[in-house]
Structures are given as structure tokens and as C-alpha cells.
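Section 5: illustrative case.
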């Protein structure tokens, strides 16, 4: 499914629009598998979050769903035909 990244939180989550729909559920929170920024309180948090924002905000991405957990879509995220985040 294709959507646009509108925000990257400092908690390893993407916000997308339009909302994703998968297996009868809908939402706007996406947690890429295998993608982690550093935890809160760690000195590199701002840098890693800012780099993710620079690379992803405003980009059209393809979501390849794996599962839904706590109203978040856990998935692979592909940008420009290559997997940006989400491949082991």
C-alpha cells in the first residue's frame, strides 16, 4: 500500500497520510521493523531522529505489512523501489 510520511517521532514511529488499512483495521501509526532510533535521554536521540525526518518526511513510501500491534502497523517500508527501513 502506498502512503506519504508526514512525521517521524523520536520513538521509532512514522505517521502517514492517508491512513493505512490492513486486515480490517485502519490507522496512521507505522513502526518499521528492524528500525530503531536511540532511546530518549541518549545524547544522539536528536541527531538520529532528525536524520530519519530528513530522509522520510514528505516521501511517498510503500508499506509491506507484517502485523498490527497496539494500533500500529509493523511493516517493511520501501522508498523508491528499495527497502529503506524494515529489512533484517
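Designed sequence:
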Amino acid at each position: 500500500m502506498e502512503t506519504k510520511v508526514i512525521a517521524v517521532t523520536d520513538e521509532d514511529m512514522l505517521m502517514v497520510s492517508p491512513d493505512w488499512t490492513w486486515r480490517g483495521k485502519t490507522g496512521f501509526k507505522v513502526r518499521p521493523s528492524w528500525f530503531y532510533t536511540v532511546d530518549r535521554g541518549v545524547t544522539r536521540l536528536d541527531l538520529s531522529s532528525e536524520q530519519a525526518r530528513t530522509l522520510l518526511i514528505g516521501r511517498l513510501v510503500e508499506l509491506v505489512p507484517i502485523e498490527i500491534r497496539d494500533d500500529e502497523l509493523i511493516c517493511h517500508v520501501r522508498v523508491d523501489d528499495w527497502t529503506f527501513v524494515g529489512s533484517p
